[in-house]
Structures are given as structure tokens and as C-alpha cells.
Task: inverse folding
């Protein structure tokens, strides 16, 4: 970067004159700094969201990795049968089987009932 030239106006204001290449380099650096700040803000926001989330228990995660649906893994973790959960939420065992195999999607009300029956956050059912 070349040495800047300082010019004083008639009102006493100081102006700095720099070569165009230096000016463009400063603009580029400022743009990069803004991008980095935006990236850092996104990172911080996501990190805060993750802190607020309650992670799945390890046994549930392992069951999911072995091929079970999340709902089935949660039910197995709670050591409940399909009949137990179906009775608790007022649906047939076949309907619950369809939910576990993702042949059907639960309504919001069903998600709330499942979460209560399994004693887990509703977000764990919805995901």
C-alpha cells in the first residue's frame, strides 16, 4: 500500500487520498470481513440452537442406525410394546405400526400423545 496523501479543505476537514488499487483492496477486505462476521453469526446462532436441543439417548441413536424408525427406537428404549403405546394414545396397534414404518405420518395431536406416552419431547417424534 502506498503512503496516503492528506489534503486539508478550506473548512479544515482532512481528506485522505490513496491510489485506486489500494482503495479497491480496502473495499475487498471490508467485504470479506462482513462475510466472515455473517458466517460467525450464523455459526453462533446454530450452536445456540444445538445447545437448546435435547440430544437423543445413545441407545435410541444406535437403534436408528441399525435401521429402526425414530418412533420405534423410542418405543424400544422405553421398553414398551406397540400394543402398550397404541392403548395409551387410543389408536390401533396396526395404526401405530404404520407410523413406525413411515407408511403414515402422525397428526400434531398424535405427536403430542406419543410424546406424552413415551415421556419424550415432541421434537423427538416429529423429526
Result:
Amino acid at each position: 500500500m502506498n503512503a496516503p496523501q492528506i489534503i486539508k479543505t478550506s473548512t479544515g476537514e482532512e481528506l485522505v487520498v490513496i491510489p485506486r488499487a489500494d482503495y479497491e483492496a480496502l473495499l475487498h477486505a471490508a467485504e470479506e470481513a462482513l462475510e466472515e462476521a455473517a458466517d460467525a453469526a450464523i455459526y453462533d446462532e446454530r450452536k445456540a440452537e444445538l445447545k437448546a436441543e435435547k440430544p437423543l439417548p445413545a441407545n435410541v441413536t444406535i437403534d436408528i442406525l441399525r435401521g429402526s424408525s425414530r418412533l420405534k427406537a423410542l418405543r424400544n428404549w422405553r421398553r414398551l410394546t406397540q400394543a402398550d403405546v397404541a392403548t395409551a394414545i387410543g389408536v390401533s396397534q396396526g395404526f401405530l405400526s404404520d407410523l413406525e414404518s413411515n407408511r403414515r405420518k402422525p397428526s400434531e395431536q398424535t405427536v403430542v400423545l406419543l410424546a406424552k406416552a413415551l415421556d419424550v419431547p415432541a421434537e423427538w417424534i416429529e423429526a
Summary: The chain has two domains: 5-52, 58-126.
